[in-house]
Amino acid sequence: MRNSSEILIVGGGLAGSCLALALARHGLGNCLIDARPQDMLSDRNFDGRSYALSLSSQRLLDAIGIWARVSDQVEPILGIKASDGRAGEGPSPWVLHFDHAEIEEGPMGYMIEDRYLRRAFATAIGEETGITHLTGRRVTGQSVADGGASILLEDGQELTGTLLVGCDGRQSHVAARAGIRRTGWGYDQTALVSAIAHEHPHQGIAHQFFMPSGPLAILPLPGNRSSIVWSETTERAAEIQALDDEGYLDALRPAFGDFLGQVSLTGHRFAYPLDLTLAQSIVAPRLALVGDAAHGVHPIAGQGLNIGLRDVGTLAEVLVSARRRGEDVASGSVLARYADWRKVDTATLACATDGFNRLFSNDNPAIRPLRDLGLGIVNSIPVLRRSLIREAAGLTGDLPRLMQGLPI
Length: 408
Prior knowledge:
By secondary structure, the chain is α/β, with parallel strands linked by helices. The protein contains eleven helices and 21 strands. It is globular and about 65 Å long.
């Protein structure tokens, strides 16, 4: 059986779902192929996973109709405090403090639970006539020709389109089948991800503690709850993940401290190996890569999803603009615009996250005083501090229109 759609999007995660909606709402019909079954797309149970959305990402979600569905379930990020430290000793007195009141646009970003965001996308996609959504379907093959692209599903069905977009994660099979190689390295670190309930209110402040084994991020959720992204060495992380919940908390408390009072786990616990992985090209003939399929970075700045949404906003604008000019949206010249637009931003963020992790994930006595002093100096210079606040909010660089709150 052979079916045709203009754009074939492989991977129904957040980046793929966002791209499907952005394209459909600007007249580009598409087929979204998701390996997950339908009953996994609207799980109502909190499993501990959450995301930090920059202000520019919030604008994109608003533009495609998602924000209105989740705005009453988010927690604004009103401040960020970053400091150096060792477990059991508390943070260094040199603290870098970002306050949202220093910029005019509002909160720097928002925290939202995975379940609410995925449910909103599943509902919106189900209501969108410009999207054919195939769930529980795996892609086993693909090919491109001058006239278009095609994919083969495991049940033998063939789908054809003008352009194939890979949104299928760091181990992208779409990229691999296209012969796109990856470059990168591991960090010998694992991120332990969970959510906690705590005694005292967080005041909307996100905390980033830089410790020798890796950073610990404490990110505010609605109510007296926070999301934890705790980077440890691979060996130590495996030991911690194997503990029961009370043992896990006992291991966490020396690093976490007591500034939020008593803590308890809520939801599940996850562990993810950390690495840097970059596709050597994010385009190929009649093919583009988006999100983690194009680049996977260290979570030290919480920018993984946000950089993927920048891909979405950029590719959507490039394709919609090309269609309005009567161009073939999958031509080499059109896809080159997408690749060129994303090149600097992706390289800058990859270098920044890699560099910060290497700088802070050590206990070198020669380096530590210098980096602590650096945090203090940056914090004491208002112009530099405000510039970094705008960077954290995703308001700098050559942003696509959707991330500026503007129509394409």
